UniProtKB/TrEMBL annotation:
Site (Important for catalytic activity, responsible for pKa modulation of the active site Glu and correct orientation of both the proton donor and substrate): residue numbering on this chain: 125
Recorded name of the encoding gene: xylA_2
Superkingdom field: Bacteria
Pfam families (UniProt xref): CBM_6, Glyco_hydro_43
PROSITE patterns the UniProt entry points to: CBM6
Transmembrane stretches, start-end: none
Name of the protein described by the UniProt record: Xylosidase/arabinosidase
Swiss-Prot/TrEMBL keywords: Carbohydrate metabolism, Glycosidase, Hydrolase, Polysaccharide degradation, Signal, Xylan degradation
């Protein structure tokens, strides 16, 4: 389910890499809840053998390990690749420092960091790609993307191959966050796109060469409305056990900075194009069954005021600041005629009602009475009109007080 990592981890800017041991490894920045800056001074590595259960391998590199970094430097958007039994972690930091460190394992620790001449100090968000013939390529930049072949040492650039403007903001909407993959002879350059006004889209451009020219394809996913403050998106596409996925991040906790890693299945049409996919709650799993209990934090879209915030216990989140007309989407649920719906809510003064929709069909309405305090959780239930099939679950909130917070939601449950 989304987010894919435990809620104690905030990992944006994800690069997912299938390594020789058969596991998928996830490299990304590391946000700290409550901070008002992007990222932190450490990088973590996570891995999985099924895309559902992830292992945290801990800190693999931190800015204090970088000899040329200034004190207090933050670490941004890493990428990692394996070549001839060595694992190369490419990273960037405050002041556009760019470098690479090496390990004998995909989870590190990565040691002996060195700067990458020419790229160091000239951009952010490194990405690495190894072609079928063994040639390696390096990409970096913001607003204007540079790319060049890596020399055999994997630590320096062949500047004779440099293309200083593979894509740019004016022609392609390129903001930052480039990532390269290859499929059926085509090179897919995935990047953060500002074409819809904010940098919330991940789009792609296609070429017959790793260094272009690239033609813009379209949007893969847009994280708009994952949180009232969402601003950017950054990730990659990757294949695992024959299925392609997009890895991307969502903001949370009414902040640009507390970002979480998510995943969706993607598909290619007969012409190699990638149709846009929506954000879901199910992620890499099958549709969720409309039975049992689910946390409110699984909402994949939230509109008209609410956002997710810590539940006070340090391990979960609640849906808070719900007002009249607010709604939350949970995509997708498989319905097999559940008979009742229970929601666990707190309502200090107002209360209201929760409409339960399956796609565009209203199947129930649950009255939430005032509970006296925002931490006084109570359960409220209603019967449901029978419905079957895979649907988007919408919770729409109604109340008489048009301007004030009505309630908070902790979880909900379907009963047979």
């Amino acid at each position: 389910m989304n987010p894919i990592l435990p809620l104690t981890h905030f990992v944006p800017d994800g690069e997912a890499r299938l390594m020789p041991d058969g596991r998928m490894y996830l490299y990304g920045s590391y946000d700290i809840s409550g901070e008002t800056t992007y990222c932190s001074d450490v990088l973590h590595v996570f891995s999985t053998d099924d895309l559902l259960h992830w292992t945290d391998h801990g800190i693999c590199l931190q800015s204090s390990d970088i000899p040329w970094a200034k004190e207090g430097s933050l670490m941004y958007a890493p990428d990692c690749i394996c070549k001839e039994g060595k694992y190369y972690l490419y990273f960037c930091m405050t002041n556009s420092y760019e470098g690479v460190a090496v390990s004998d394992t995909p989870c590190g620790p990565f040691t002996n960091p060195v700067p990458i001449p020419y790229a160091d100090g000239s951009g952010i968000d490194p990405s690495v790609f190894i072609d079928d013939d063994g040639s390696a390529y390096y990409y970096w930049g913001q607003f204007q993307l540079s790319g060049a072949r890596l020399n055999p040492d994997m630590m320096s650039l062949d500047l004779s191959s440099l293309n200083a403007c593979l894509i740019d903001e004016k022609r392609h909407g390129f903001h930052e966050g480039a990532s390269m993959r290859k499929r059926n002879g085509l090179y897919y350059l995935v990047y953060t796109d500002t074409a819809r006004g904010r940098a919330t889209c991940m789009s792609y451009a296609v070429s017959c060469s790793p260094l272009g020219p690239f033609q813009k394809g379209g949007v893969i996913i847009d994280n708009i409305y994952c949180d009232p403050q969402t601003w950017n998106n950054h990730g990659c596409i990757a294949e695992f056990q024959g299925q392609w996925y997009v890895f991307y991040h969502r903001s949370s906790q009414n902040s640009k900075f507390n970002r979480r890693m998510c995943i969706e299945k993607i598909y290619f049409d007969e012409n190699g194009r990638i149709p846009e996919v929506p954000m879901t709650s199910q992620g890499a799993s099958n549709p969720l069954k409309a039975k049992g209990t689910y946390p409110a934090s699984l909402a994949c879209q939230i509109r008209n005021g609410p956002y997710l915030c810590p539940d006070g216990n340090g391990s979960g989140e609640i849906l808070t600041h719900i007002c009249n007309g607010s709604w939350a989407a949970y995509r997708y649920f498989s319905f097999e005629t559940p008979h009742s719906f229970t929601i666990t809510a707190a309502a200090c003064i107002n209360g209201g009602s929760v409409e339960i929709w399956a796609d565009d069909e209203l199947i129930g309405s649950c009255l939430v009475q005032p509970t006296g305090r925002w931490d006084a959780w109570q359960s409220f239930s209603c019967n449901l009109i029978p419905v079957t099939g895979v649907k988007t679950l919408y919770l729409t909130f109604r109340g008489n007080d048009l301007d004030r917070r009505l309630m908070e939601i902790k979880e909900f449950a379907f009963r047979a």
